[in-house]
Write a structure and sequence with these properties.
The structure is a single chain. With about 260 residues, this protein is an alpha/beta fold. The protein is built from eight helices and seven strands. The longest helix has 29 residues, at about 105-135. The radius of gyration is 18 Å and the shape is globular. The chain has a seven-stranded parallel beta sheet with strand order 3-2-1-4-5-6-7, sandwiched between helices. The chain starts with 7 loop residues before the first strand and ends in a 15-residue tail after the last strand.
């Protein structure tokens, strides 16, 4: 059963990777879309493709989730234009650097904290009041297995994803008594631009992360997002951990050869 058709879905960070795959997956289910990202050209290209291939309504907005005032203004514009979302997918996030804490870059720390943590807070704080007023909605937070187990040199990235896990639990508690659901999708290794960003564009180093096994694809995580959103309204999948078959934890991953 398709319970998604006709719903309006707001997705952050849709210019690539999991966010882009989610946009395609929701369009295939006949949802109306509000897509945001920092890279406007990619947004426009994706929106045109989805309108052409799936004949769905797609609104786009260039948005940096770190910019609180811009996020609040964006949320006000959604209300003014009648585009308040039924579903919010907090996807925007990144990893920057892989170093010991005492050798870490303050700039990298700020990028991760401001995007992964404060960005999620900014968007959620801006959008949730409208959902509460309507007593309906669904928030999906993209977490990570990095929020379950710390790995060497992950320190601040791990901390941001542990915070996302805590906020996912806190949102569920704060929204008890409402019909609003909150879910976290926590992936293991997914082959996206994630490692390329983490290693500052070093393609060779990024490629090694995914060698010797079949990693998850962005489409796999989009399917998980669809699953929790499409569940009956009385079903709230609060957390889902998804890993490639070759991986069983942050530390246990089988590589051929």
């Amino acid at each position: 059963m398709n319970r998604i058709e006709g719903k309006r879905v707001l997705i952050t960070g849709t210019s690539s990777g999991i966010g882009k795959a989610c946009a395609v997956a929701f369009a295939q289910r006949r949802a109306s879309l509000v897509l945001t990202a920092r890279r406007g050209e990619r947004l426009i290209e994706l929106a045109e493709r989805l309108r052409r291939e799936h004949e769905v309504e797609v609104a786009t907005h260039v948005l940096d989730v770190r910019d609180r005032q811009a996020v609040l203004a964006f949320a006000r514009s959604l209300e003014a234009d009648g585009l308040v979302p039924d579903v919010l997918v907090n996807n925007a996030g990144l990893a920057a650097g892989l170093t010991k804490l005492h050798e870490g870059s303050f700039e990298d720390w700020d990028r991760m904290i401001d995007t992964n943590l404060k960005g999620l807070l900014n968007v959620s704080r801006a959008v949730l009041p409208s959902m509460v007023a309507r007593n309906s909605g669904h928030v999906v937070n993209l977490g990570s297995i990095a929020g379950h187990l710390v790995y060497p040199n992950g320190n601040v990235y791990n901390a941001t994803k542990f915070a996302v896990r805590a906020l996912n639990e806190a949102m569920n508690l704060d929204l008890v008594g409402t019909r609003i659901r909150v879910s976290s999708i926590d992936p293991g290794a997914v082959e996206t631009e994630f490692s390329l960003v983490r290693f500052a564009g070093d393609e060779a180093r990024a490629a090694k992360v995914y060698q010797g096994y079949q990693p998850l694809r962005p489409e796999d995580i989009a399917e998980a997002v669809l699953f929790v959103v499409n569940a009956p309204e009385h079903v709230n999948v609060q957390q889902m951990v998804v890993m490639p078959t070759a991986q069983r934890s942050s530390y246990v991953l089988h590589r051929e050869g």
